[in-house]
Amino acid sequence: MSRRIFTALAPVVVISALALTGCSGPSVPMQPAEDAGAPECAEVTVRLPDTVDDLELRYTNAQATGAWGNPASVLLRCGVATPPPTTDQCLSLDGIDWVEDDSEAPTYRYTTYGRTPAVEVVIDSSTGVSGLNTLMDLNEAVSYLPQSGACVGAEDVLGIPTETP
User: Fold this and answer.
1) pLDDT at 4
2) Which phi and psi (to 5°) does residue 57 adopt?
3) What phi, psi does 101 have (nearest 5°)?
4) With 77 labelled, which of 2, 48, 110, 128 sits at a CA distance of 20 to 30 A?
5) What is the C-alpha separation between 123 and 136, in angstroms, rounded?
6) What is the spatial distance between Cα 90 and Cα 109, in angstroms, rounded to a whole number?
7) pLDDT tens for residues 28-69?
8) Contact at 8 Å (CB) between 59 and 27?
């Protein structure tokens, strides 16, 4: 008897699955980062916000990734290598440090600094997306990555006093 019930329900399950995937449209093609399988990336991925800078979250075809907008204007990959010390600009936003790569402006690449594994976010600002708003929207999810360091400024490296006598 249970076999008949399964056989009778199988078309309903398939139709339901098709209906669900049909409404969401095609997934955004992405490549997973080298350490996308890290458990810390799973912690980030399950906490990705439904929107960043008013762009809707979309399905992707790769582990530990996220995409927002249609077309996708914000792409996230967890599991990238933690950047080494750099002279590139580093932004500290509510306890999360991001290294900015503006070499392909108006497309900007931000990578968490002092967190392993690291998260990389690519933002196409030509679509009107705000890098600051996007990173702030992602901060809560990214905060689940273990922190092992932080950005430092020239005053920290050179021993320049921050207070004047």
Assistant:
1) 40
2) -65, 140
3) -115, 110
4) 128
5) 13
6) 12
7) 999 999 999 999 999 999 999 999 999 999 999 999 999 999
8) yes
Cα(39)–Cα(63) distance, rounded to whole angstroms?
11
Q: Which residues partner with 8 through β-bridges?
A: none
Task: Quick: pLDDT tens for 3-34.
Answer: 443 333 333 333 333 333 333 458 999 999 99
Amino acid residing at 29 = P
Residues 6+ apart with CB under 8 A from 157: none
Helix residue ranges per DSSP H, the chain:
2-24, 39-45, 131-142, 154-158
Place of tokens 């249970």: 2
Quick one: how far is CA 98 from the chain centroid?
A: 12
The dihedral of CA 101, 103, 104, 107: what is its sign? positive
Distance from C-alpha of 161 to C-alpha of 165, rounded to nearest angstrom:
9
**Residue whose token pair is 């594994």:** 117
**In this predicted structure, what is the pLDDT of residue 18?**
32
Question: How far are the Cα atoms of 49, 114, 131, 162 from residue 142, in angstroms, in the given order?
Answer: 11, 12, 15, 29
